[in-house]
Amino acid sequence: MFEVLIKLKFFFKENKWQYLGSFIALAIANVFSVFIPYIVGRFIDAIITGEMNAAVLRTYSLQFAGLIIVTYVLDFFWGYGLFSGAYKLQKEMRSKLMRHFLRMRAPYFEKFRTGDLMARGTQDIRSLADTAGYGMLVLMSATGFTATLVVMMGVSVNWGLTLAAVIPLLPMAYVVKVKGAQVDEAYEIAQKSFSSVNDDVLEMIDGMRVIRAYVKEADFIDKFKDQTSGLLKKNNRVSEIAAIFSPTVKAFEGLSIMIALSYGAVLVSQGVLTVGDIVAFQMYLGMMIWPIISVSELVLILRQGSASMRRVEEITHATDGLNFKGNIQASHVDDFEFNQFTFKYDSSETINLDQVDLDLDKGKTLGIVGKTGSGKTTLIRQLLNQFPVGTGTFNMGKSAYAEYDDPSLRRLIGYVPQDHVLFSRSVRDNISFGKKDATDEDIIQSIKMASFEDDLNNMDKGLDTMIGEKGVSISGGQKQRISIARALIKDPEILILDDSLSAVDAKTEQNIIHNIQHVRSGKTTIISTHRLSAVKEADEIIVLDNGQIIERGSHDSLIAKEGWYYDQFMKQEVKEQTITEDVSSPDPYKRRDD
């Protein structure tokens, strides 16, 4: 149960003075507060014995007021210390989690879904913060304050009566232990269910256009109702188990009060105690109500904290399985060499790159083509260090690619992926993301190279136009060209376009390719594409099939071979010509053979 406190030891150690000061203030406040019943008891005895007068009243009143003021001030200090510490823990844990996410590559995010990561980074960390704040308060109250009260009851009233009243509370520990373990298990199940709901909600939002296009709103509403109903049942199960704590504590507490009153009446009749002693004793028992009840709360907090800690540790201890320890600083891009290079994904049943031999000279343009699943993106991922290095030779210059420092390599690369990731910011912010100190002049220049200038002119706010989350307010072609502009503004040593022109028309594609060839003369460019017109000007083109290079050469030489590249190029040319003729026809809906 206390494992979460042990695992948070690092945080308590870092903030030891803050927590130590809070505990001291809380302990002193507890000591001062237990003197209040004692003063009340003496006050009552003074009335009963007839000793009450103005001087005695003034003395007790000043003592009472002084205790209240001191306790108030001390409560402020320990409250601020504990709860500000809880917020500090949230900040540190989330920062640690974010640093971990940013270091991880693709294999890591294949293990965990986005909604699950968000649930653990929000709700579970908040549960840990509750442990560091309210949990520590409850722990001090359930131990230190209770012990102070017991000592005060025994010393100022009667030890026999104190023991008689406290002993009935001991069996409560067994109930707390058994039910606490059940809470731990039920809470972890509920959290997993919450993560699942989070995942599906994010997926639904991302796919909203498709859902509406297929008129599946009702199906998703029904599915969501079922999921939330299941989550409600699991959370109710946690509440159901937790609900047993309070009545159990109150039952044992009632037994304790009954014994205290009965035995206390006997002691008063025997002259051992005064009426003021009994009143003070009952006040002490009343003050013990919250610390005793807090025992159940402490168990809940610690159990939930332990479950949350396990969930957070699962994602912070998990890795992407990649271990790039190269220490050669890459200051420039050199020639690339693949020799008998083979790679296979862990989840794949077949080899994804098979005995690849490839030389790419610095400053040249390489075209990579092939059918879907042929290995084009897999080859690019090796350059990006997104997956483990395969077997065989993969060099840049005279050194193995894995021997280079990974961050220094990535600084040299401009990458435009198939799935364009844009931020819910302005056009300016999305493009300048590629260059920290980019000026508007730099941005406009990259926009021209990406053939986005006409689109920008049609936007009401120009560079300040907000594109919405993931670029929801712009077209697919506009997303691609903003992504290309973002990569070009970096002026990278190596530019990688991974099927990044699929959503633009042929004319725009040729403009972009021409601009890239002109501006990036002498720099390495890799273009992976299904549209062969995008690689016509490449220095070398390779055709991949089932992870193997089946054809290679320039555009003209591949056309002359009349192999796969020739067949595919001819089909695309005919298709493009057909589209052009249909669009230029007075009646675009008229059949060509009418």
Protein model, in words:
It is a single chain. Residues 588-594 have low confidence and may be disordered. 63% of the residues lie in helices and 9% in strands. It has 3 domains: 3-317, ABC transporter transmembrane region fold (Up-down Bundle), CATH 1.20.1560; 336-412 and 492-584, P-loop containing nucleotide triphosphate hydrolases (Rossmann fold), CATH 3.40.50.300; 424-479, no CATH class. The protein has helices spanning 3-7, 9-14, 16-49, 54-103, 106-111, 114-156, 159-166, 172-206, 208-213, 217-242, 245-269, 275-317, 376-383, 406-410, 427-432, 440-449, 453-457, 476-488, 506-519, 555-561, 564-584, and strands at 336-343, 353-360, 365-370, 391-396, 399-400, 413-416, 494-498, 524-528, 540-545, 548-553. The strands form 2 sheets. A 6-stranded mixed β-sheet has the order 6-7-8-3-9-10, sandwiched between helices. A 4-stranded antiparallel β-sheet has the order 2-1-4-5, with no helix packed on it. Helix 4 (54-103) packs antiparallel against helix 6 (114-156), helix 6 (114-156) packs antiparallel against helix 7 (159-166) and helix 8 packs antiparallel against helix 11 (245-269). The chain is α/β, with parallel strands linked by helices. The longest helix is centred in the first third of the chain and has 50 residues, at 54-103. The N and C termini lie far apart (81 Å). Keywords: ATP-binding, Cell membrane, Membrane, Nucleotide-binding, Transmembrane, Transmembrane helix, Transport. It is found in: Cell membrane. One of its GO terms (molecular function) is ATP hydrolysis activity. Its main location: membrane.
